[in-house]
Amino acid sequence: KMKSARSSLICCITLLFLASFAHAGDVAKGKALFNDPTLGGGTAGKSCGSCHPNGKGLQNVTGKTEFKFAGKVHKSLEDIINACIEKANKGKALDPKSEQMRDLIAYLKSLKP
Asked: Distance (Å, rounded) from C-alpha 106 to C-alpha 30?
């Protein structure tokens, strides 16, 4: 019984570890989205990279808890990303739990100062 319990525990830990990668986001996809002027159906002809080429100025953004943009304070990274998509890119907000949002955040986390 002890071996069976240990095997089950190892299996569960392995599955949780693998599942964490499934939700982490893809840096390459995030970079492509960051540079896509049609993200969120954007009509301004601009991408995130238009204002932040190669992520310039966003290297430490994932460590912040408050963002000021267009006269408003945003309390999450997802909120500020959506504010930029809506205001600057003239697009529609992404679902904060979407794969696209996870990919964008993965890209932002990959930026080094």
From this structure: 6
